[in-house]
């Protein structure tokens, strides 16, 4: 069954990536056409969102069949599909380092898949069995330990360095990673109960688990946004993903004992290391590319602004002509040429367009600045 779970998770990652790319394609298409209606009414966006939901459903199904330690690394395959589909559909370019990092992600995922099936763990698919797994002393102690560490860190930040933004951002990043790891474990339990067990809905325990997992999802979104607001995305995204994966692996052991009898520990951890490092490299490359594009846009905007100011100054100088009340003198007329045939250098049919300032000069003339 674990192979079916791998196939479902891989297909789910593909559909999630395809859905995101189609939604981005809808935004780019609407931006090019200048349409101003709501984006969620666009056909391409609706199609992309539907495909995205289908991918999430497939991932939920995969949780019931594949070991959690394996799924923790398989989630990174969505980055590979995003890079490939973005290149095919959106025409986005990939740097050589990014291609190498994606290849390392694939290699790491393959190593994890080869290492995990030898230790399927203990997955009791009854309601009381799952509740017993979540009530294990190791699982509860690990959760309490993380909660105590986050609380102590929070008190330290509030009392010692209340104004240090970086410390607060790191704290919210830590909270997001912990919530991500435990949320994944709870949804895996729900998937095991709904797909692998009959008459699950008559038990009240399933509703408690769903309620807790849903609340943790909302909290995770909230803490992630605060972390991104306080810290750099280059640090928040890799740390959140890495910490979430490590906690998922920890829960795979304390809740399901998936790592106890694993004989290929070295292969597994090397694969996890490759996935985490490669994912961090991909995020850094993408964010660096965005920073470079933003810098180029700012540079182009600054150059265009300076060019516009220079042209405006040149136009002001060209249109600013000193004339006497009796009209231009022959010498001045010869020097300036016949650029304008009207008095004061402004054509009569454009007189209403003059919105400049009029300055008196010692030579009893006027300078009209348009």
Automatic annotation (TrEMBL):
GO terms for cellular component: membrane. Keywords: Membrane, Transmembrane, Transmembrane helix. The chain crosses the membrane at residues 43-62, 69-90, 96-116, 137-164, 170-194, 206-229, 235-254, 266-287. Coiled coil: none annotated. The keyword Repressor does not apply. It is found in: Membrane. It comes from the Eukaryota. InterPro entries: EmrE-like, Mg_trans_NIPA. One of its GO terms (molecular function) is magnesium ion transmembrane transporter activity. It is a multi-pass membrane protein. This is Magnesium transporter. It comes from Alexandrium andersonii.
